[in-house]
Amino acid sequence: MTTPSAREQSRLLNIGDGLTMPLEAVTQTFAIVGKRGRGKTATAKVLAEEMIGAGQQVVVMDTVGAWWGLHSSLDGNAPGLPVVVFGGIHGDVPLEETAGAVIARALMSHRVPAVIDLSGFRKAAQRRFATAFIEELYHSNREPMHVIFDEADEFAPQSPMQEGRHLLGAMEDFARRGRLRGLTCTLVSQRPAVIHKDVLTQGMRGSCARPSPPRRSCR
Description:
Radius of gyration: 16 Å
Distance between the termini: 36 Å
Number of helices: 6
Order of helices and strands: HEEEHEEHEHEHEHE
Largest sheet: 7 strands, parallel
Oligomer: single chain
Number of strands: 9
Strand content: 15-25%
């Protein structure tokens, strides 16, 4: 096996012990699936850290409030990554459920990494925000952006209720054709059986990542 050059090594994303990925992974779509407590979110956080550390724009759609720690150190006493947290009890910027398109345009304009914390919204409000956000990105974005959908089954359920079909349609467009617009994603879920198959298979084509012990994780 050929040893990577120093230049090539500087472009590797170090995900865990013995597991690296090329920087070009930011332009691919992935699925991280597994049982509760097996390290799915921790693995996704390390992936986000590595991409952001390499100067890439990563946006996390967080329905449970688990990602705000990206912007602080592990001990909470120092700054972490240059991530803007929208919403949630630890947010830098408050979030309104009607602001999905507005936040999308702001992120496309300023090109900063971000966490969109939807945990303070009810399910219907989460869907409204996410639909407007995803549609605006799909129709207007043209620069590389990697979006991590934690609890991806909330955004693309296999059998959506009537009020969730609009969001599912937006997710299908994003997953299937978003790459032409610079958009790729990582789907994270402990319930892959209930993720809509047209969305999940896009992640499986890029890579189906089975969580391994991560090198580090955020709070």
